[in-house]
Amino acid sequence: MKKKWQLSLVIVFAMTSCILYIYQMQLKEKVEAYREELMIKNEMEELEHHLANKSFIEEGWLDYTTWEASNELAEMLYEDSEGAFEKEWGWFLAGISQQYGVDPLIVYELLRTETGGTFDPTLVGPETQYGRAYGMAQFMHNTAPWIAEKAGLPYEDDLLFDPVYSIQLAVVYLDFLYDKYEDWDHALTAYHRGMYGLEKYIEANGNAESWYAVEIQENAENYDWVAFTGE
């Protein structure tokens, strides 16, 4: 009888421990989800403030020198991608990057990495716990709408498959992230993992030098192209 009583206590203790463990894990997941939701809300507010105070280059910035540089960039990216990155996209990337003050080669290499080198504007990413990513810049449906709204752009899910639209969203978001963190390691890792994911990465690794950020920056440095000098 005593052994049965002891065995019953062990079973009750084990079951209680198991229930407590499950409860703790569920609570941890809820806390992390709340923290991430709060960070996204803060990110939306910061982006709105950033764009409200952004000093854009005036529309008259385009002249012969900048056009020549834009055309050279478009030709170079077209050849580098073996025709996958169309010249029209290169011209638009050159113009929008100049307007926001973002390195177009960083954007180009980000698009290459996001699409696995295909530059496919119709790409649909794999299923994740947050959903799928869409288009050349691989934005998710929970992120793209508020970036578009803050940038004064229209939004429909299908627009993420428009390469020019996708490029502009990427430039707007990268400009915001670089302004916030003031270096490309943090900005690119945040683009890839989200701002909450960036924090988790830094906690685990002690820095923001993810393979994603390092690869994009190293590849962007390999081009023989003179950046815009005129404003």
From TrEMBL:
Residues covered by the Transglycosylase SLT domain: 97-211
Database matches in PROSITE patterns: PROKAR_LIPOPROTEIN
UniProt keyword annotation of Phosphoprotein present: no
Keyword vocabulary terms for this entry: Membrane, Transmembrane, Transmembrane helix
Domain of life of the source: Bacteria
Gene3D superfamilies recorded: 1.10.530.10
Regions crossing the membrane: 6-23
Annotated Pfam families: SLT
Protein name: BH1391 protein
